[in-house]
């Protein structure tokens, strides 16, 4: 009897069944990678995917940006039929393109179209880093160029959201050609006295940062966006110096005159609306 009083009874451990696990919806909660705060995903979407505690800017899809940016039911995409081929016969490239297309619902790493912001019509190109890390191949360059040319023909501003790992290695020199092609289209746009706003997001690197992303009439960026051409380690090994901790961040570039402003995403639509409104003019 006394032994029974001091003997710990083993409690049965109930393991949830597979059916019970499946009853819990996936993606209902999101963890902030910076402050580790657990956030209801639906609440995060309401704040334009900016952490309400530490202001960390989560990556956005191209269509999420459309929802935040344009006046309701005004955006129309263009050139959705353009799709990448495999000109260099790079192994598995076609399969990877198809996989990313299915995952993102995009035909390529950029969504282009025309819509209204604050009642003013603009052309836009929105890169999506969920598709091949937003890398720029021949179709990405072509779509961006066509969006710029459409803006030039209609005498309206163009806005480009950059989110890219750079030129796409699977297309070799064909991808590098897009740097010149997009830049020439922007020069023709500028020759007509039309506005180009570049918005750099995390990340904007490589050939994208060295071409159309850096030549806006107004260059904006989201907080803490990674912006640069070569990688940090490559630069340090080349110059044989230790670089500042905030090197290649939006804030660093702002301090050194390479950006006009760093804008919180929750204020970005209003900012763009004001800038476009100030520059729009009647076509004679």
Keywords, separated by commas or semicolons:
2 domains; eight-stranded mixed β-sheet; 2-enoyl-CoA Hydratase, Chain A, domain 1; two-stranded antiparallel ribbon; alpha/beta; 284 residues; globular; 37% helix
Helix content: 25-40%
Q: Indicate the CATH class of the largest domain.
A: Alpha Beta
Largest sheet: 8 strands, mixed
The computed structural class is alpha/beta
Question: Could you spell the SSE succession in H and E letters?
Answer: HHEEHHEHEEHEHEHEEHHEH
The whole-number mean of residue pLDDT values reads 91
Number of distinct beta strands:
10
What is the CATH topology classification name of the largest domain?
A: 2-enoyl-CoA Hydratase, Chain A, domain 1
Task: Describe the protein's topology.
Blueprint: H1 2-6, H2 18-22, E1 29-31, E2 38-40, H3 41-46, H4 62-69, E3 76-77, H5 93-104, E4 110-117, E5 120-127, H6 138-154, E6 158-164, H7 173-191, E7 196-205, H8 206-209, E8 218-221, E9 227-228, H9 232-239, H10 250-255, E10 261-262, H11 265-279
Parallel strand pairs: 5-6, 6-7, 7-8, 7-9, 8-10
Antiparallel strand pairs: 1-2, 3-4, 4-5
Helix pairs in contact: 6-7
Brief rundown of the structure:
This protein has 284 residues and is of the alpha/beta class.
Walkthrough of the structure:
The chain is of the alpha/beta class. It is built from 11 helices and 10 strands. It has helices spanning 2-6, 18-22, 41-46, 62-69, 93-104, 138-154, 173-191, 206-209, 232-239, 250-255, 265-279, and strands at residues 29-31, 38-40, 76-77, 110-117, 120-127, 158-164, 196-205, 218-221, 227-228, 261-262. The strands form 2 sheets. Strands 3, 4, 5, 6, 7, 8, 9 and 10 form an 8-stranded mixed β-sheet that branches. A two-stranded antiparallel ribbon has the order 1-2. Helix 7 links the parallel strand 6 and strand 7. It is globular, with a radius of gyration of 23 Å. It starts with a helix and ends in a 5-residue tail after the last helix.
